[in-house]
Amino acid sequence: MARHCRQRAAPLKLALPLLLLLLAAAAAQEVKLVSGPGCADLPPSPPTELKATPGDGSVTLTFGRPSNGACVSEYQVTVLPVDAAATRSAPPRQSTQQFSLTIANLTNGQQYKFFVKAYAARYRGGGEAQVVAAPAAACDPAALPLAPTALRATPGVANVTLCWAPAASGGCVDEWRVAIQAVQQSGQRSSPAEYRRYNKGGCVTIASLAPGQLYTFSVQAYSAALKSGAYASVQATPLAPPKQWRCVPVPGLYPLCEAAAAGRCAPLTCQQQFAKGQCGAPFMRIVDPASLTIVQHCADLCGCSADPAATATRAMPDAAANATAAASATPVARRALRAASAGASSQASAAAVWASPSGCCATAPRSFADDTEGDDVADTGL
Ligand SMILES: *[C@@H]1O[C@H](CO)[C@@H](O)[C@H](O)[C@H]1NC(C)=O
Ligand SMILES: *[C@@H]1O[C@H](CO)[C@@H](O)[C@H](O)[C@H]1NC(C)=O
Ligand SMILES: *[C@@H]1O[C@H](CO)[C@@H](O)[C@H](O)[C@H]1NC(C)=O
Question: Which residue's CA is minimally distant from atom 13 of ligand 1?
Answer without folding.
Answer: 104
